[in-house]
Design goal:
By secondary structure, the chain is mostly helical. Helices cover about 70% and strands about 0% of the residues. It is elongated, with a radius of gyration of 16 Å.
């Protein structure tokens, strides 16, 4: 079975993409975020950073570099989660919206951690997780 050939095949990237869509939906022009440009822009940038770092790390073509970028993406997940608290406290989002986005971010973090663990156990400089390994990482999610 072939390994992952494109960053779009990485489950963590797919989950991060869904998170970005949720964040952009929460921060559209009709939302209370409308006037809080700083927070709105920061939470959007942090969510996009997750996807971007996964893609950039994949493009580096070594497990060591890929892992480094996955850790950066993991930091951006925490940043999004922290900013969600600000949005909740400022009443820009409901508790339900908070929980949905926070949980999606947590799912993304679990996938990232699983993939980092997989990559750290590899013995070659350019091993990509097989679809079977990605499935194992996906099973770490709690949905």
């Amino acid at each position: 079975m072939a390994g992952i050939e494109r960053f779009e095949d990485v489950k963590a990237w797919q989950e991060a993409r869904t998170l970005v869509t949720k964040i952009y939906g929460l921060t559209d022009e009709a939302s209370p975020f409308k006037r809080d440009y700083g927070l709105r822009d920061q939470i959007r940038k942090a969510s996009v950073s997750i996807m971007s770092n996964i893609a950039e790390g994949f493009g580096k073509r070594t497990d060591k570099d890929f892992s480094r970028f996955l850790y950066i993406a993991l930091g951006s997940v925490s940043e999004v989660q922290s900013q969600l608290y600000v949005a909740l406290d400022m009443k820009y989002i409901s508790e339900r919206e908070f929980a949905q986005c926070y949980d999606k971010a947590s799912d993304t973090a679990r996938l990232l951690l699983g993939f980092i663990k997989y990559l750290s156990g590899s013995t070659t400089g350019d091993k990509r997780a097989s679809p079977v390994e990605q499935s194992k990482v996906s099973s770490l999610r709690t949905t």
